[in-house]
Design a protein that fits this description.
Largest sheet: 10 strands, parallel
Bound molecules: iron/sulfur cluster
Oligomer: single chain
Distance between the termini: 35 Å
Structural class: alpha/beta
Number of strands: 10
Number of helices: 13
Helix content: 40-55%
Shape: globular
Strand content: 5-15%
């Protein structure tokens, strides 16, 4: 298949076609993915989001990869729903270090009626700061979805995790059909979808292809597709899983890019375990979104600095927020880049 033919937006992918994409020579796959990427995006821009856990641990679901599940003993400190004001302070800090989107995650099966008013206030407040808003709160009903949209929620994250065939090995407390139903409510309410999955859970190539087929064959592609590498946490059932071959992970990003050419493909969990060369390869494969992460909210944060240094060395700039030009925000990004340029540690490979 030529790169040009592959860039057409499709919703009818078959398993055989997708496996053929996966199994072609690595360089051919990367060339094709990069070609498709350049038809829809500036290849030197990466969107930056910040993730904050607004309610941590004691989740009733049994996702086998997750340290927040109440089914496993991982020693995680449990926290109640954060106060609205604290969430808004974290959002303001995220904005100051260059994030354009603020993602708030709660470890719930679904939001309760008691918690919804606070959640809606968080959306309204973060939106008022000039950030895009994203939430992940578990399963939603139609009424909740409509309320979140009315409050100004831009994105809802709800991952499919893996293929329908493998799903039962990973989660037993929520069905695949329920996940798809939540995604359909999100669309009906006019919000954007963030949905992806995880590699390294013992899944086969067919399962990786099957996940991407589910996402790409939705009536509309998710605007954001997070591809996660399993972070093995002691106490979870997947703690001893085998590592994913880094090249197989890059292949997953590249195939996602080809199948969903206009979506942001996000290099998500597991990025901290990846060296800089692998991250650079991920951007070449078409990944164009990253998380700064919830622990990375202060300007002195070394990981955030490291990310900015890598961006600068690769000649990558954080993507601007397009909908509402925001001079303050753009100035913050430019300032961060200038500081990196001035840093003695910075070697600019772009000049
Ligand atoms: S629903 Fe989310 S927070 Fe709860 S166990 Fe699954 S992945 Fe973890």
């Amino acid at each position: 298949m030529s790169a040009t033919a592959a860039s057409v937006t499709r919703h009818d992918w078959t398993l055989a076609e997708v496996k053929a994409l996966f199994t072609q020579p690595f360089n051919d796959l990367l060339f094709q993915a990069q070609t498709v990427h350049r038809q829809h995006f500036d290849a030197n821009r990466v969107q930056v989001s910040t993730l904050l856990s607004i309610k941590t641990g004691a989740c009733p679901e049994d996702c086998k990869y997750c340290p927040q599940s109440g089914h496993y003993n991982t020693g995680l400190d449990k926290e109640k729903l954060m106060e609205v004001q604290k969430v808004l302070e974290a959002a303001a800090e995220a904005k100051a270090i260059g994030s354009t989107r603020f993602c708030m995650g709660a470890a719930w099966k679904h939001p309760s009626a008691k918690d919804m008013p606070y959640v809606l206030k968080m959306v309204e407040g973060v939106k008022a700061l000039g950030l895009e808003t994203c939430m992940t709160l578990g399963k939603l009903d139609q009424e909740q979805t409509q309320a979140l949209a009315a409050a100004g929620l831009d994105y809802y994250n709800h991952n499919l995790d893996t293929s329908p065939e493998y799903y039962g090995n990973i989660i037993t407390t929520r069905t695949y059909a329920e996940r798809l139903e939540t995604l359909s409510y999100v669309r009906e309410a006019g919000m954007k979808i963030c949905s992806g999955g995880i590699l390294g859970m013992g899944e086969s190539l067919d399962d990786r292809a099957g996940l991407l087929i589910q996402l790409a064959n939705l009536p509309e592609h998710p605007e954001s597709v997070p591809i996660n590498m399993l972070v093995k946490v002691k106490g979870t059932p997947l703690a001893e899983e085998q590592d994913v071959d880094p090249f197989d992970f890059i292949r997953m990003l590249a195939v996602a890019r080809i199948m969903m050419p206009k979506s942001h493909v996000r290099l998500s969990a597991g990025r901290e375990q990846m060296n800089e060369q692998m991250q650079a390869l991920a951007f070449l494969a078409g990944a164009n979104s990253i998380f700064y992460g919830e622990k990375l909210l202060t300007t002195a944060n070394p990981q955030a600095d490291k990310d900015m240094q890598l961006f600068a060395r690769l000649g990558i700039q954080p993507e601007e927020r397009h909908e509402h030009a925001d001079e303050v925000h753009q100035a913050a990004i430019e300032q961060a880049l200038i500081e990196q340029r001035d840093s003695k540690l910075f070697y600019n490979a772009a000049v």
